[in-house]
Structures
1.
Amino acid sequence: MRDFSQDHRWLSINTATLRKSRGVELPLPQIIEACARRGIPAISPWRDQVHAAGLADISKLVKLHGLELSGYCRGGMFPASTLEGLRAAHDDNRRAVDEARELNARCLVLVVGGLPGALAGKPEGKDIALARAQVRDGIAKLLEHSRSVGMPLAIEPLHPMYAADRACVNTMEQALDLCDELDPSRSGALGVACDVYHVWWDPKLQSQIARAGRERLLAFHVCDWLVPTTDLLLDRGMMGDGIIDVRRIRSWVEDAGFDGYSEVEIFSERDWWQREHGEVLDVCVERHRSVV
Ligand code: ZN
């Protein structure tokens, strides 16, 4: 297992972690500058942040600082209740692949979606099996394009509390079953993003990480699960502040051959987004060394 205690060579910052500084929206160029100043070698930006700043400008800035992208967040949201909706999702996902390519990301992360309409608070049905079939078909179709431009797709299983509105793929096992079905040769074009927040509780986690192996482990996301958790989406903890044994899970992904970045991804409306972003980054660096 790699020793993270001496430096932060393998630290990546998911830019949602610095979405706000003292409660105020922080533009992506400032996030990038702050990471670069601390010698953080990689980021994983969100599409809305990239669009707000302009793809071409962000591409230039990333190259200027020699930053790598441990991933690009995010594609997915495949299910829809109409043909037009399915087509619109596909078209948007193709654009996400192309943006990820332009930014030279290691993968496009897929949050696959749940029941149509649920994210807006108006679920249009109850057929989760149909949603899962649409996810499978959507990924299969997107793979034709992503393979052609050489952009790996990373399915991120989300904690089952998000099954209705964000992702109906909820375990590593389920994500890997999709990978086996759609990319049986383990070509590297399709894999998983292992986010400890979503999978730490799973009794099959260790065996499924081993099953994934190097070819399918495309990203590793860290934060912590706070007890109690006060918001299902926006109360993630800093590594070390909760009950996830992050280092043990990292040992499993590394045993399986993963040697990429450890990406800090924290959505925290009431705590970390209220602090000054430089302070947050300093704590990320320190916890990366001492906890991850
Ligand atoms: Zn994640």
2.
Amino acid sequence: MTTAKFITFEGIDGAGKSTHLAFVADLLRARGKTVVLTREPGGTSLGEALRNILLHEKMHLETEALLMFAARREHIAQVIEPALARGDWVISDRFTDATFAYQGGGRKLERQKLVALEAWVHPHLQPDLTLLFDVPLDVARARLDATRELDKFEQEKADFFAATRAEYLRRADEFPQRFVKIDSTLPIAEIQDYLRDIIAEFDR
Ligand code: TMP
């Protein structure tokens, strides 16, 4: 019997999820799992090429959603499904919840179009656990401004991120069986304690 699990990390830009990816991967390795750590958009050579385009070129919002799902199709075929079939645990830095949040919430693309793409690209695959790192917009903005050169999404205005965050929170309420919300304003050590508890509970 395979115990392979699919875990996703989500949150608006500046929510601090990246800090915790390696920590959770290490927790799982310490529990004897083989872990594949990957990201979206990206995770394959085609996906990384699409990421570069998506993060830097202006395009129609439907083109953006279609390219996100095109990169995802390749990612699932080349990385996620083979890893799960081997019995590995997969951690992806973002997945389809990000498309609902950014292209649906932020850019206001009709949700039904995203539901149709999701049903086409991964009718039978959903994360087993989604860690949603949640912060107020001003905290996220301050973190972003303190870091690096901002990409196309990171340069968006407050109302875009408010709508993106709201859609993440709405999905967390819609799918409570797989979402865990994490207050990402807490000190890193406290978040790590919480993550340790979440993983222990999830991998019983
Ligand atoms: P990252 O900075 O967390 O790696 O994510 C890259 C950016 O891509 C981030 O601003 C969110 C955005 N994004 C979408 O807009 N839709 C998606 O489906 C995904 C996976 C990411």
